[in-house]
C-alpha cells in the first residue's frame, strides 16, 4: 500500500472529519531532517504538542498553540518522521471512546456508526482506513490497544516508568518494532490463557472467546506451552490501584465539567496515604503475577464485545460510564499498573470483522513480547 502526501491528500479530500479522524491537518509541512524515519508520515495524538499545530486536549475550548513540541514527538522528527496533523482523542484522554467536546467524533471504519474506541481513536481510524502507515498514540489504561482492537489493527503498548506510555498504532508488528527501534526476539515462553474478565463482571462475546481459542491453538502448533489460568486473588486491589493512580493526577485540574469533573472530584478524595499504597501495590505487581500464574505472558481477548454505537458511553451517568468502559475492556489496565508491555493483534473471524487478541507480558521484555506476537500475526 502506498503512503505518500499526494495519496493522503487524495484520500482525505473525499472523507468527512468523522471518517478521517483528524482534528488538524497540514499537508504542506515538510520534514526538516533526514534519518532512519525519513519517509514516515505520522499524525500526533491531540493530547500532545507539536509546534505549529493547535492542541485541543479533546475539548475545543481548551485549544492552545504550543511553543515547544512534545519530547517524544520531537525525537521522532529528529529521526526524519513527518507529522502532518493531529488525531482525535476524548477530553484529556480519559475515556475508551473518542468523542471530543465541540469537535467531530470519529467513526469506526469496520462498524459504521460505532465508536472506534479510545482514547487514541482518531489514530486507529487513520491507520485502519489506510490513510497512514502508523499513527502516534498513548496508553494509560488501554488507550492504544482498545482502539486498535476495535478497528482491526495492531496496538503495541511498551513497558514504561509510569501508568501512561507513548507509542503507535500500526498496520503490522514489524512497523511497531521498527518505530520503537526494537528487534523482536522469539522467547521460550509459557503462556497463560485468561478468558475470565479481571476487573468487571461481564459476559464475553462468543466470537471473542473463539478467537482466543484459535490463537491458543496457533501458539501450541508453534511449540509454545499454554495453560488455562484464572484471575489472581488480588485483582480487585489492582483495579482500585489503577483508579487511584489514574484519578489522582486530575485532582488539581483547575477547570472541568461533566465526566472530566467527576474524575477530578474522585481524585480529590484520594489521600496521600492511599496514593502511596497504590504505588507500592503497582511496584510489587509484576513479581506477584509471575509467582501466582507461573507463566511468561498471558493471552486474553482485548475487548469483551463489539464496539458500541457512538454516544453509548456518554449517554450513561458518570459512574455507569466508567463501569461500562471497564466492562468493555476488563483486562487492559493490568499492564498499565504493572508497567509491562502488551499488544493487541487483529485476529480473523469468519463473516465478521477481525477482533483483537491481547498478549501481555509477565516476564518478557518489549522485544521478546513482539517476538512472541509474531507467532500470531504474520
Automatic annotation (TrEMBL):
Coiled-coil annotated residue ranges, if any: none
EC number: 3.5.1.4
Organism, scientific name: Corynebacterium striatum
Protein name listed in UniProt: amidase
InterPro entries the record matches: Amidase, Amidase_CS, Amidase_dom, AS_sf
Domain Amidase residue range list: 26-169, 189-370
Entries under PANTHER family matching the protein: GLUTAMYL-TRNA(GLN) AMIDOTRANSFERASE SUBUNIT A, MITOCHONDRIAL (PTHR11895:SF7), TRANSAMIDASE (PTHR11895)
Signal peptide range in chain numbering: none
Amino acid at each position: 500500500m502506498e503512503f505518500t502526501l499526494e495519496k493522503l491528500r487524495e484520500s482525505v479530500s473525499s472523507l468527512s472529519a468523522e471518517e478521517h479522524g483528524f482534528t488538524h491537518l497540514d499537508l504542506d509541512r515538510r520534514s526538516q531532517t533526514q534519518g532512519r524515519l525519513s519517509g514516515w508520515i505520522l499524525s500526533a495524538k491531540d493530547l500532545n504538542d507539536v509546534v505549529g499545530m493547535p492542541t485541543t486536549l479533546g475539548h475545543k475550548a481548551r485549544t492552545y498553540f504550543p511553543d515547544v513540541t512534545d519530547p517524544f514527538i520531537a525525537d521522532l522528527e529528529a529521526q526524519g518522521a513527518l507529522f502532518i496533523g493531529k488525531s482525535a482523542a476524548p477530553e484529556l484522554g480519559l475515556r475508551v471512546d473518542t468523542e471530543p467536546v465541540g469537535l467531530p467524533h470519529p467513526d469506526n471504519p469496520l462498524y459504521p456508526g460505532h465508536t472506534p474506541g479510545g482514547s487514541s481513536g482518531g489514530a486507529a481510524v487513520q491507520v485502519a482506513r489506510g490513510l497512514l502507515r502508523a499513527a502516534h498514540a498513548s496508553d494509560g489504561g488501554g488507550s492504544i490497544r482498545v482502539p486498535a482492537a476495535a478497528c482491526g489493527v495492531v496496538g503495541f503498548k511498551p513497558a514504561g516508568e509510569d501508568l501512561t506510555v507513548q507509542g503507535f498504532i500500526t498496520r503490522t508488528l514489524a512497523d511497531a518494532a521498527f518505530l520503537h527501534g526494537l528487534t523482536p526476539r522469539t522467547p521460550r515462553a509459557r503462556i497463560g490463557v485468561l478468558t475470565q474478565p479481571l476487573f468487571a463482571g461481564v459476559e464475553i462475546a462468543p466470537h471473542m472467546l473463539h478467537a482466543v481459542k484459535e490463537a491458543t491453538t496457533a501458539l501450541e502448533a508453534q511449540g509454545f506451552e499454554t495453560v488455562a489460568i484464572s484471575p489472581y486473588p488480588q485483582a480487585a486491589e489492582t483495579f482500585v490501584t489503577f483508579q487511584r493512580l489514574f484519578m489522582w493526577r486530575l485532582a488539581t485540574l483547575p477547570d472541568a465539567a461533566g465526566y472530566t469533573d467527576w474524575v477530578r472530584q474522585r481524585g480529590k478524595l484520594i489521600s496521600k496515604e492511599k496514593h502511596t499504597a497504590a504505588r507500592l501495590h503497582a511496584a510489587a505487581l509484576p513479581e506477584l503475577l509471575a509467582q501466582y500464574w507461573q507463566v511468561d505472558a498471558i493471552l486474553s481477548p482485548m475487548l469483551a464485545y463489539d464496539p458500541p454505537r457512538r454516544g453509548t458511553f456518554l449517554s450513561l451517568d458518570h459512574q455507569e460510564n466508567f463501569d461500562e468502559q471497564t466492562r468493555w475492556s476488563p483486562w487492559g489496565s493490568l499492564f498499565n499498573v504493572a508497567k509491562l508491555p502488551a499488544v493487541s493483534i487483529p485476529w480473523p473471524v469468519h463473516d465478521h470483522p477481525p477482533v483483537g487478541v491481547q498478549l501481555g507480558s509477565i516476564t518478557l521484555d518489549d522485544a521478546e513480547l513482539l517476538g512472541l506476537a509474531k507467532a500470531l500475526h504474520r
